[in-house]
Every structure is written in C-alpha cells, then in structure tokens.
Amino acid sequence: MFTLKNIVSPPHQMGSAAVVSKHYSQEPSNLIGARDDNDALALFLNKAGTRSMETRRRYERETIRFTVFIYQVLGIDYKSVRLKHLHAYLDFIQNLPECWLKPGAVPNRPNKILFNASIKQGKSTDQVIDVLSAFFNFLDKNRYTQGNPTASLVRSGEKMAKGSTVVRYFYDKEWIHVKKCLDTLPIGNPRQLMKASRTRYIMAVAYSLALRESEITSHSCSDIQTDGEGGFLLSVLGKGRKRRHLPINRSLFERINTFRNMLGVGIISDDAFPLAPRLRKQEYSITSLSSRGLRFWWQSFMSDCAYQSQDPMLAKRLKEIPFHSLRHTALTHLARKMDIEDLAIFAGHDSINTTSQYYHAEVKRLRSLTADHGL
C-alpha cells in the first residue's frame, strides 16, 4: 500500500520552523476518514488507480513531487496550501536547482530522482496543474481542506480564448502521407524488416480498434476471445474501468497472424503476445512496450514521416502530433459510416456528447459550400 512516510516526513516531524498542524484526530471530520496527509494522498491515488495504471503512475509522480516541495521548501502541509504556494511551486519546477535533478532530494529515498530536467512552461506545466487540480478538488469535496486553492490557477491555453487550435486527427492528405511512409519502410536487412513489421502491426492494431495508449500497452492476445459466430473480439478494460468488446475484422486478424508467424509463435491463441511488443526479448519472452516506450516508438516513426515530407508545415506537425491522434483519426473515419450511438459504444464513451466531436463537417465540403459566399 502507498505510504507517504516512506517518501518524506511531514513538516512537523522535520523540525520545521513553521507551525504546522498534524491534522490527526481520533474521529476525522472529513468525508474520507483521512487522519493525516498520508491517508488523504493514499485514498486519492487509490481512486486515480481505478481509471488506469498509467493515470495512477502520473498522479503519484506529480503529487509526490509537490508534497516534497511543500514539506521541505515551504514547511507546510496540504491544509495550509494557498494560491501563492502553487505559483511558487510552478515557478520552482521551471527553474529547478541542481540538487533536485540528482539523487538525494528525497530524505527517505536517497536514490530517488524526482526530476530529470526543469519543466517547460506551456503544455507541460498545464499537465502538472491538471493533476494538482484533481488532487485538491478531491480534498475539498471530501472536506479535508477548506476550499480548493487550484481553482484560480491559469493554464497557458486559457490565457487566450478557450478551445484548442490544434487539430487532433490526421487530415486526409496527412493520413495518405503516413500510410505511404508505412508502406515504404526500409526492409533491407533482418533488423529493418523486423522493425518495419512491428510498426505496421502496432499501427494496424491501434488504428483498427481506436485504442488508447494505456489500452494497447496493457492488453495482449490473451484478451482476444471468440464471438461464437466464427469471429474474434478484443475485450478491453478502458478508461474508467469500463469494459468493451471490439470486433477484430478479417484484415486485422490476418495482420496479427502474419506478425505472430514471423516471430514463430503461430496463429492467434490464448497467450500473452502483446499488442505493442518490444523488439528485444526479455528472458526469452516477448513483452509489451511501456507507455513511455510506445511514445518513443511513435515519435521515431513520426520523425521518419516528417523527414520524407516536402512540406515544412506538414513536417512540423508530424513531429508534434501525439500517439492519441491515431485514435482520433480512427474515430473520425468511423464517424463517416457509423451512427453516433454505435461509435460511442466502440469508443468506450459514457456520453454521446464526447463522441459528437468526431462528427465535424469536412474541410472540403465546407470549402465547397462557402465558395461563393461573400459580399
């Protein structure tokens, strides 16, 4: 079980000059029954873990970093955090002292490195704010703190009009370029052939089933089941621990078997063959990429696609577009032939309001409709 005491001691146990309450009572008045910060954080992380292990790891990383900062640098605990302390933290992580980039920053974990580099202002700090907002919202809703100090934090994207200016799916011409690059991957030697086959396999699985990053790295062929009618389904435990069953069409079925046969493991069976495999075996077995490894693979492939583009704007966009765009692209394409209710089931959405974002007017169609519109 997670325990904060194994990471860093609370301020009142560190000889801090600040007067800090232990927030400990025999009968806690908060709704989660937390006796101290350790209990509060553990309960929050347990809740975060119900979404996915990737979410749990990200939330734990950011909350631990923040906790070490307020305990060691500010000498306060969660109940004492105010907006000015959050601003101080955001400034701190953008200008980290050298000692925080090395082992030794965490007293009870001498080998732990909290940061590899300072956090860049923009999307990276926005992601930190998102985690802290979720954390303090949880504490506030359950009356562990009085109010949510993150409520007034301004994300970089909110300094302008709300709404993202980044299109999160591939336009048709961009998608044609990506598929062309996929078809022309180098296969001049055995390693290149293996690398190209692995890339085509992962792309086929991720696009055909519109999988999230955490879903493709945490599932394997052991999650493929027969549907009772001669076909196959992938049973996916997705976001919010919602279960959905995705049909594997003939094209994807053959792609999976082709790659499996190439590695000598035979056709689809109830085994742990990963949906996003590593190239190197570990202890004579083929294991799955981590989420970080998947992102590294994706960035490498997108860089190759960018290099092959003659369009500087397209090359720049390909270098920046995330793996999740593959899911957005798949759902955008499926929206052209699926009803919104069916697409919501396929995507694993609770609400069709989420699914509705994929039913957008095509740029080509809008251009045609507005061609003669004007004064």
Automatic annotation (TrEMBL):
One Gene Ontology biological process: DNA integration
Localization terms from the record: Cytoplasm
Coiled-coil stretches: none
Major location category of this protein: cytoplasm
Record SUPFAM superfamilies: DNA breaking-rejoining enzymes
GO molecular function, one term: DNA binding
Keywords linked to the UniProt accession: DNA integration, DNA recombination, DNA-binding
Annotated Gene3D superfamilies: 1.10.150.130, Intergrase catalytic core (1.10.443.10)
Pfam families: Phage_integrase
PROSITE patterns per record: TYR_RECOMBINASE (PS51898)
Entry's transmembrane regions: none
Domain Tyr recombinase positions: 166-371
InterPro entries the UniProt entry points to: DNA_brk_join_enz (IPR011010), Integrase-like_cat_sf (IPR013762), Integrase_catalytic (IPR002104), Integrase_recombinase_N (IPR010998), Tyrosine_recombinase_XerCD (IPR050090)
Entry GO CC: cytoplasm
Organism domain of life: Bacteria
Database matches in PANTHER family: PHAGE INTEGRASE-RELATED, TYROSINE RECOMBINASE XERC
Name assigned to this protein: Tyrosine-type recombinase/integrase
